Amino acid sequence: MKKLKNEAALVKEALRIGAIYLQKRGGAGEFDGTHSAGLKIRFLYHLLVQDKLIQPLAKGEETEPKMKHKLALWISRQLPDNHPLRQDN
């Protein structure tokens, strides 16, 4: 697993866009200020896997760093080519 140069910023953006996705999807809940980053990452990862928007990690490989990496890859593919977070990847 090669870490992306802007991975932390990409994960932050994935959580922001993921919160919007949750609202538009309806029925999945939403993030609020009381949820920890780890909980948000886990929830969004599992939701995207369930909706078949990302490939699941192998069983036993579902660690927070690997979930973060998957979310960073997902959001980097959603961003336009000229977005600043995609420039260094």
UniProtKB/TrEMBL annotation:
InterPro entries xrefs: DUF5062, DUF5062_sf
Top-level lineage group: Bacteria
One Pfam family, short name: DUF5062
Name the record gives this protein: DUF5062 family protein
Organism listed in the record: Parendozoicomonas callyspongiae
